[in-house]
Amino acid sequence: MPKVTISVQRSGQEAGGKARFDTHQIELGEKASILDAVFALQRGPCPDLAFRFSCRVGMCGSCAMVVNGRERLTCSTLVNTVGDKLRLEPLRNLPVVRDLAVDLKPFFDAYQRSIPQFIPRDDLDQNDSFYRLPHDSAEWKALDHQPQCIDCGSCYSACTLVTLNPRYLGPMALCTAR
Fold it and tell me: Distance between CA atoms of 138 and 102, rounded to whole angstroms?
């Protein structure tokens, strides 16, 4: 089994403690994902390591973190595609709850600020007032070419405008609001 060196950002446990990096070597299987490596850390040298995960198949986005300086879904990124040295950090531009777990409230607050308000009028005929796009139409296919956002927060983390101006809504909020 190949050995991997992992530097993982840890929160300061004491009041006012600074974040630090702990480095560990672990053995992983050939097809291990980065999330598998994080689990191995938690089962071994870092039993109190905090991180988030849910679906483990790249659909929920809860396992997103910064790996070697780049935002990634850790469940769907294989270690062997990144290298045998990993540097794991929480998503940027978001408050760290502990270790690799961040508070996504600012991310979702930005989305809520961008939602257009639709309040139906009483005089609207629900059957005839809206143009419907059949799913098999050319118009639908033209609109449906973009990958769907899974609300992982990676774009918000990677966005330098959010870093420079925290009031900036961020890519997901602006893309969804159109």
Answer: 41
121-173: pLDDT as tens digits: 666 565 655 566 677 888 777 766 666 788 899 999 999 999 999 889 888 88
* Spatial distance between the Cα atoms of 36 and 6, rounded to a whole number of angstroms: 12
Residue 137: count of CB within 10 angstroms of its CB: 11
Helix (H, G, I), strand (E, B) or coil at 173: helix
| Sequence-distant (≥ 6) Cβ neighbours of residue 156 within 8 angstroms | 91, 93, 94, 107, 110, 162, 170, 171, 172
Secondary structure (3-state) at 8: strand
**Phi, psi dihedrals of residue 8, rounded to the nearest 5°:** -120, 135
Tokens of 122: 């009483």
Q: What is the pLDDT of residues 72-103, one digit of tens each?
A: 999 999 999 999 999 999 999 999 999 999 99
| CA distances in angstroms from 65 to 42, 70, 85, 95, 101, listed in the order given | 16, 8, 16, 13, 9
